[in-house]
Each structure stands twice: as structure tokens, then as C-alpha cells.
């Protein structure tokens, strides 16, 4: 790891070289820190100069990242723990029973009821519950997100091609050149107002394939407080996870 002094701060960064790269790119990541992607033969002294020139931008990004909430701790999937769904935290109740031969999940009377078969070995219990909970989230995400897409499609006068809900590591949603919309199933943990913002964001890309002023004007015409919702997602997004 390299470092430079910038004012009263010290900026540490990792250099990633590539023979295919012709320009310098800097990323400030909440987990990996400052990453500087450079052409293979660029001298370290020149890289340090570039980092120093971008020092104000880097330190501002680092300041903003300090506001970001940490991801949740891994779940044991035991009674008393809580899971998020549409912005609320619901307590888990795990019941071992001989009435089922597979893990079952349901949100019943304000609790996640998880039925676990007696035959399930303890060593496999956590992963089996986790996999079933994720399947439950995905099914509910598909239904909710498709319903919201249908609702906002008419408001924006657009027509998506396909709607996919799947695992996405770094994106909440995306819109392909073919008009296919992809959504991260984890957004179903967020409040419905955030789900709506993400849905409208991707639908707006069917009209504007960029983040131009026209794009944001269209989003704002549908969701007047989109900036607040976007900020909520920036600060709380890492908590929308199931480990």
C-alpha cells in the first residue's frame, strides 16, 4: 500500500496495474479503501502526483463514507433475531417440528416463523434456513417489484422488455440497451419508498440512457423527494444484506 500526505491528512491507496488500461481511474470503496487503477508502466511518482491532485475529491469521498452504516453481522437464524422486510425489522421464531421435511418460512402476525424439520442435522441447519429465507425474499421481491414497475410504467409512458429480480453484488438495479430491467432482490428489505425510487430510476433509463439533467428531471417529476431517498440508500444500503 502506498501513501501521500495531503494537508493534515494521510491518503493511503493501492495501485492496480493493467496492460490494457490507458488512463488513470480512482475508486474510493467502503471496504477496499482507495484504489488507483493505472497503465502497467506508469511511474509511482507520477501516480502519487495524480493522487495528490485528486486529494480534495478523495478526502470528501472518505468523509461521506464515514456516514455510511456498516453491514449487519452474520445471522445465526435463531429465535429472537430480526430480519428486515420493507423497512421494518421482524423478530424470528424458529420451531423444530416433525410436521415438515423441509425448512418453511412465513411472515405471520408480525413474526418470521421458520419451521425446521427434526431430521435436519445441526451442522446444516443455519445454511438451510438462510437459503430458504433468501428464496422467500426473492419470491416476494418479484411480486412487489413487478407490481411497482407496472404501476409506474403508465406514469412514465414507457414499456420495459423483461423484468428480472436476481442477485447483484454492487447494483440495486440496471437497465440494458434491450430495455431489460434488472433488480437486486435485497431492495425488498428497504422501505417501499426506496423500492419505488429504484423502480422509477430504472424505468427512467428507458427514456434517457444516462444520468443527464433530463434524466433526473424525469425522476423528480415522478418522485419529488428522490434526493432524500437516494441519500437514504447511500447511508443505509449496506444494511440491506443477509449474511
UniProtKB/TrEMBL annotation:
Pfam families on file: YgjP-like (PF01863)
Gene3D superfamilies: Metalloproteases ('zincins'), catalytic domain
Residue runs in coiled coils: none
InterPro entries, sorted: UTP_pyrophosphatase-like, YgjP-like_metallopeptidase
The YgjP-like metallopeptidase domain, residue ranges: 22-234
Name recorded for this polypeptide: YgjP-like metallopeptidase domain-containing protein
Classification of source organism: Bacteria, Bacillati, Bacillota, Clostridia, Halanaerobiales
Amino acid at each position: 500500500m502506498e501513501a501521500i500526505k495531503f494537508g493534515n491528512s494521510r491518503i493511503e491507496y493501492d495501485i492496480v496495474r493493467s496492460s490494457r488500461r490507458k488512463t488513470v481511474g480512482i475508486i474510493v470503496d467502503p471496504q477496499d479503501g482507495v484504489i488507483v487503477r493505472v497503465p502497467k508502466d506508469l511511474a509511482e511518482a507520477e501516480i502519487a502526483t495524480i493522487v495528490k491532485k485528486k486529494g480534495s475529491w478523495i478526502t470528501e469521498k472518505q468523509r461521506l463514507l464515514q456516514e455510511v452504516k456498516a453491514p449487519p453481522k452474520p445471522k445465526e437464524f435463531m429465535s429472537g433475531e430480526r430480519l428486515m422486510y420493507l423497512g421494518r425489522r421482524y423478530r424470528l421464531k424458529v420451531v423444530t417440528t416433525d410436521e415438515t421435511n423441509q425448512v418453511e418460512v412465513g411472515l405471520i402476525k408480525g413474526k418470521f416463523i421458520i419451521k425446521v424439520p427434526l431430521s435436519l442435522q445441526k451442522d446444516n441447519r443455519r445454511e438451510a434456513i438462510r437459503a430458504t429465507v433468501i428464496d422467500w425474499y426473492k419470491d416476494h421481491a418479484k411480486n412487489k417489484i413487478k407490481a411497482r414497475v407496472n404501476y409506474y410504467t403508465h406514469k412514465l409512458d414507457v414499456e420495459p422488455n423483461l423484468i428480472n429480480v436476481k442477485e447483484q453484488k454492487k447494483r440495486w438495479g440496471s437497465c440494458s440497451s434491450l430495455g431489460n430491467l434488472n433488480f437486486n432482490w435485497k431492495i425488498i428489505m428497504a422501505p417501499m419508498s426506496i423500492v419505488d425510487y429504484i423502480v422509477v430510476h430504472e424505468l427512467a433509463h428507458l427514456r434517457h440512457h444516462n444520468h443527464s439533467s433530463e434524466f433526473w428531471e424525469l425522476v423528480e417529476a415522478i418522485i419529488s423527494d428522490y434526493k432524500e431517498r437516494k441519500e437514504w440508500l447511500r447511508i443505509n444500503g449496506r444494511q440491506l444484506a443477509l449474511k
